[in-house]
């Protein structure tokens, strides 16, 4: 009983916050509603036993993606009135994409429930006593180790490429010359001495 109540509560909040995310006039409010949707989606994942996905939703999406959205929205000077004017112009294209996504979801649902292959694929590959995170980690670091390492290598290359593309040599700056500092002689240094009033600085 409590599980059904929690499911309908989280699901209702997710649907309501998702609707408010796309309908809010203030973009900062939209990001806040999006964070609320992520938290409640994590609650839904906990109900079905996918605690790893719930943890990813909170740590990655709420802790990184949503906060990044919030900083970008607050820091950039965007004319949101002009953006809203183009909403009706791109509405047919958006409805077309939405229809394509809904049709793909329906086709995937029908393909999953049809045939004996889907029924065989539903069998659990790990015992129910094994935690979800432990089973996922065992599978990733044994059977899919090379794919996991390949994905990490792709992300590393993308990160290095982003750093190289955004790095620019700044002009008009005076960098630190460590070799010159090491070879400095005591007689070439500036000495701080106590001078009487009216006397210049001694170098």
Task: State the gist of this model.
The chain has 203 residues and is mainly α.
Description:
The protein has 203 residues and is mostly helical. Helix content is 69%, strand content 0%. It is elongated and about 95 Å long. It starts with a helix and ends in a 21-residue tail after the last helix.
Low-confidence stretches: none
In terms of quaternary structure, the protein is single chain
Q: Please give the alpha-carbon distance between the first and last residues.
A: 85 Å
The H-and-E topology, N to C, reads as HHHHHHHHH
Radius of gyration: 29 Å
Structural class call reads mainly alpha
What's the total helix number?
9
Keywords, please?
mainly alpha; single chain; 0% strand; 203 residues
List the helices and strands and how they pair.
Layout: H1 2-23, H2 27-47, H3 51-75, H4 80-85, H5 91-113, H6 115-121, H7 132-140, H8 145-166, H9 178-182
Helix pairs in contact: 1-2, 2-3
